[in-house]
Design brief:
alpha+beta, 4 helices
Amino acid sequence: MNKLDPKVKGALEWICCIVIAMVIVLLGGYFIGKPTIVNQISMYPTLEQDQRLWLNRWGRTTHTLPKRGEIITFEEPSKISYSESEINIKNPVAKFYDRQGWEWFVDIFLEMGDKRSYIKRVIALPGEHVKIEGGKVYIDGIELEEDYLQPGVVTDVIGVGFSDFIVPENCVFAMGDNRNHSTDCRSFGCIPLEKIESTVSFRFWPFDKFGGIDADK
C-alpha cells in the first residue's frame, strides 16, 4: 500500500483540525453561548446600540425557563401585530415561522440566514395574571416595581394588543425597557420556551461597562 506524500498528509491533518475546530465552535455557539452586538434601542437605557454582550445558551440546552427580570433573546415572531378579531386572550402565544430541515440548519443552527432575534426583559412567568393598566404593570394584582425603567416611562398597549391575560404554560411575557420604542409581547403575545434562544450573561464592551447585568436593574 502506497504511503501518502508527507506534504499531502500534513495538509489533510490541517484540514481535519480546521473542520473539527469549526464544528466545536458551532456546537458551542448553539448549545453553550456566543457573543452578540446590540442593534436595537428597545432595551435602552439598560442596553445601548453597539454594545457587545455574551449570551448564555445553556438554558436552551437544558430546556429551562428564564427568571423574571432576566434579559433574553428569542426568535422573531412571524406576526407582530393583530387585528381585534385575531386576538386570542385565552391563548396569548406568539406565532413563529415553521423552519425545518435545511432552512432550520442555516437560520437557527448556523445563524447565517435572514432570521432576526429580539432582545427583551422577562416580566411574567407561566400561570401569572398580567394586567397593563394606567401606565403600570400588575402581576397577580400586585404592581410590578421596575427600577430599570427611566423616570416617567409608562407602560401602555397602543391599539390592539395583549393587556389582560394569563401567561400560558412553558411561556414567558417579555417587554423592552424602552417601552415607547419596543415591539414586544404586548403586540404579538407570549414567547414559548422552545423559541427562547439565550439569556444575557454579561456585557464585555465597552470596557467601562464590563460586567454582569442584574436581573432587577
